């Protein structure tokens, strides 16, 4: 694996705890508003005197707000001439028209210019205590070498490169190298199976793949190159696979494979950046929807980068010199926006976490916080819930005094997890920011911060819209709900620069999914409650998408795979509450007549099928074999009934008279009792 020759870490600045109130709900510190110190652009917005007013201004005069921020925070090769040209009802979203820039220059060159020896990346390798630091100069050199290598092998502007790698500096350099030469990247989470990878390579029309020989996570070796070999068998367009060495174990190489580490050494450390239009594609990222086929969401250059940078700075109160620790894998949007693009655009020091929260023991995160002097820690509630079970001693063993902000992402954070995070991890002095957003939104849209210094933070609530974000709640008829203390479908009334522009090769699906349900608004797919005070709390998905350990998966995707088993006639998959994963997967399966296999064997077969075709996290925790599913007379599966049975809420079953065969429910209830008592 490509390693830098010199490792230096600029001392991280440590600001004593910003919040010191012992009160959980109200975190206070009075300060007078100094707009220029808070946000230099705000000084030019007359009459704006406070963070709340700035938020109002960013929504009411969004063109002025975003123009000022874009000019101040991005380096442009050519300035933009129009701030936005958006029509949400048609799914037309364009920002900073006419502008040209290069994202890798914004993430690297400009910082190399001012502080070449500042640490850009700290790679927290799976092997504890073996972290490696890369300065901005080193990361730029590595990026340029990869950029030149890709160019030499025919990758050009407009191509799409698939990256199937663990979280590591070379993966970041590969992403930035694509951005440098104008190619889009398509990072596929390295936990996905060969088939899931192949589907994403084909849909993205990639002819180049970058991978490593083997991955290492939680002490276990995964055969990533072999997975790529299997995947590309069904991808006739793939003409080259770059293979870097994460471990010392050689792998079989074919004529298509290129030894990346060796070849990079032959390349120059200077690589001419492409001038990219604001709306050229920066990356595709596949995510699950309510149908079986994952969607390749498209993010573009300027708007995405600007939004990632601004949210990174203001939601987490990131200051120059801080060490930012986002533990998400780069295969997800959180890794893209807050391990890579946001921190690097801000010239920050960002941690790349390759391991798991419990490897080699449950103190891993906090040992890392102490060793790397992390100031902002950003993780998922599922990991917090897991760590609670191991006890406080694993946290208290380590010095966490550098921590200033704790972030939560990907799923609702329950009060118990929030309080433990706040009290035990943060010792009651670090604000916890529950950040709501999605692959589609590009960056955080609702979070407790930024807010006035004396503003309260309510546990388990995302609370406040970010600058430029205007959330609305809708009733089932599509009316905007204007009062407080009300729940509805969460939509966005205004476009913002970070939002996805389309679904790759399927703009119609983009329009149907996000723009048509509530014409003129962007529909998020989530429900939310607005409290009496006007704060937002996410109540969960309104579609058939579930969230397992913070990973989003469509139930239809799992059903499609289960139904491929020759013994299966049909299936229905639902999510159920799981104490650690947030949601678990529960599958109801109807077998074909005359199938004569032991249920236990079949369960195993089905689990293998799901992990082989999608990924391990999508495997059902429970498989209940039934003779029939509850259906309406028109043949639609009544998932509501299945959910109630699994939640043991039989009083909530409601009206079953519309069912084709109400007796089916009794059988399901009995079967569920039997299964859950095992
Ligand atoms: O349902 C919401 C949930 O995760 C979905 C987005 O998943 P994905 O695109 O994979 O991105 C995850 C990382 C941003 C949302 O539609 N979700 C995300 N954050 C929260 C959340 N649910 C509740 N609270 C959150 N803070």
Description:
By secondary structure, the protein is of the alpha/beta class. It has a domain at about 545-675: GMP Synthetase, Chain A, domain 3 (2-Layer Sandwich). Helices cover about 30% and strands about 25% of the residues. The chain has 20 helices and 31 strands. Strands 12-11-8-6-7-14-15-24 form an 8-stranded mixed beta sheet, sandwiched between helices. It has a 7-stranded mixed beta sheet with strand order 5-4-17-16-18-19-20, sandwiched between helices. Strands 22-21-23-25-26 form a 5-stranded antiparallel beta sheet. Strand 30 (about 580-590), helix 18 (about 600-615) and strand 31 form a beta-alpha-beta unit. The chain is globular, with a radius of gyration of 25 Å. Residues about 5-30 have low confidence and may be disordered. Bound molecules: adenosine-5'-monophosphate-propyl ester. Adenosine-5'-monophosphate-propyl ester binds near residues 411 and 547.
Under CATH, the homologous superfamily of the domain at 545-676 reads: ANL, C-terminal domain
Percent helix, as a range, is 25-40%
**Total helical elements:** 20
Uncertain segments: 4-31
**Total beta strand runs:** 31
Please state the CA-atom Rg, rounded to the nearest Å: 25 Å
Global structural class: alpha/beta
CATH topology of the domain at 545-676: GMP Synthetase, Chain A, domain 3
Walk across the major sheet and give the strand order. 12-11-8-6-7-14-15-24
Described by its quaternary structure, the protein is single chain
Q: Strand share of the residues?
A: 15-25%
* Distance between the first and last residues' Cα: 47 Å
Describe the largest sheet. 8 strands, mixed
């Amino acid at each position: 694996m490509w390693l830098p020759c010199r490792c230096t870490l600029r001392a991280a600045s440590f600001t004593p705890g910003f919040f010191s109130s012992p009160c959980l709900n109200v975190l206070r510190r009075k300060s007078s508003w100094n707009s220029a110190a808070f946000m230099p652009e705000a000084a030019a917005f007359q009459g704006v005197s406070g963070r709340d007013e700035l938020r109002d201004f960013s929504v009411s005069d969004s063109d002025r707000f975003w123009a000022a921020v874009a000019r101040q925070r991005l380096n442009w090769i050519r300035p933009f001439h129009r701030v936005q040209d958006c029509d949400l009802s048609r799914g037309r979203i364009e920002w900073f028209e006419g502008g040209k820039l290069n994202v890798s220059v914004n993430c690297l060159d400009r910082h190399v210019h001012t502080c070449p020896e500042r640490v850009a990346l700290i790679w927290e390798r799976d092997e504890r205590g073996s972290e490696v630091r890369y300065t901005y100069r080193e990361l730029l050199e590595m990026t340029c070498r990869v950029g030149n290598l890709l160019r030499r092998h025919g990758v050009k502007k407009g191509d799409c490169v698939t990256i199937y790698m663990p979280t590591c500096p070379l993966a970041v350099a590969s992403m930035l190298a694509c951005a440098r030469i104008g190619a889009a990247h398509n990072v596929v989470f390295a936990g996905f199976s060969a088939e899931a990878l192949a589907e994403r390579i084909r849909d993205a029309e990639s002819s180049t793949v970058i991978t490593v020989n083997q991955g290492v996570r939680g002490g276990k070796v995964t055969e990533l190159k072999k997975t790529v070999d299997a995947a590309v068998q069904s991808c006739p367009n793939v003409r080259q696979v770059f293979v870097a060495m994460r471990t010392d174990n050689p792998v079989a190489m074919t004529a298509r494979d290129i030894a990346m580490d060796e070849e990079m050494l032959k390349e120059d450390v200077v690589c001419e950046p492409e001038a990219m239009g604001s709306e050229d594609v920066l990356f595709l990222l596949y995510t699950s929807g309510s149908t079986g086929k994952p969607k390749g969401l498209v993010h573009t250059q300027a708007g995405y980068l600007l939004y990632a940078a601004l949210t990174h700075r203001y939601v987490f109160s990131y200051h120059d010199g801080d060490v930012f620790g986002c533990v998400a894998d780069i295969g997800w949007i959180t890794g893209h926006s807050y391990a890579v693009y946001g921190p690097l655009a801000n010239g920050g020091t960002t941690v790349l976490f390759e391991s798991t929260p419990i490897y080699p023991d449950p103190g891993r995160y906090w040992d890392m916080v102490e060793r790397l002097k992390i100031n902002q820690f950003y993780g998922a509630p599922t990991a917090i819930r897991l760590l609670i079970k191991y006890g406080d001693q694993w946290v208290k063993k380590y010095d966490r005094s550098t921590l200033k902000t704790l972030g939560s992402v990907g799923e609702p954070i329950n009060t118990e997890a929030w309080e433990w995070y706040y009290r035990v991890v943060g010792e009651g002095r670090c604000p916890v920011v529950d950040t709501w957003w999605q692959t589609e939104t590009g960056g955080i849209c609702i979070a407790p911060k930024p807010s006035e210094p004396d503003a309260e933070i309510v546990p388990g609530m995302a609370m406040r819209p970010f600058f430029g974000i205007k959330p609305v709640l809708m009733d089932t008829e599509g009316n905007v709900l204007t009062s407080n203390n009300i729940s509805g479908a969460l939509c966005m009334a205004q476009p913002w620069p970070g939002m996805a522009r389309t679904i790759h090769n399927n703009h119609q699906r983009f329009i149907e999914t996000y723009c048509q349900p509530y014409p003129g608004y962007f529909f998020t797919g989530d429900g939310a409650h607005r409290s009496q005070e006007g704060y937002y709390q996410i109540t969960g998905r309104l579609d058939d998408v579930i969230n397992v350990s913070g990973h989003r998966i469509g139930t239809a995707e799992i059903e499609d795979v289960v139904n491929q088993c020759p013994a299966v006639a049909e299936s229905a998959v639902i999510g159920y509450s799981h104490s650690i994963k947030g949601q678990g997967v529960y599958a109801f399966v109807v077998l074909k007549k005359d199938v004569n296999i032991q249920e236990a064997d079949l369960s195993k077969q089905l689990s293998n099928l799901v992990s082989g075709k999608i990924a391990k996290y999508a495997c059902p925790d429970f498989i209940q074999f039934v003779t029939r599913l509850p259906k309406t007379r028109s043949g639609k599966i009544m998932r509501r009934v299945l959910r109630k049975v699994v939640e043991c809420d039989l009083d909530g079953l409601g009206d079953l008279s519309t069912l084709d065969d109400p007796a089916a429910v009794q059988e399901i209830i009995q079967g569920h009792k039997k299964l859950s008592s095992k």
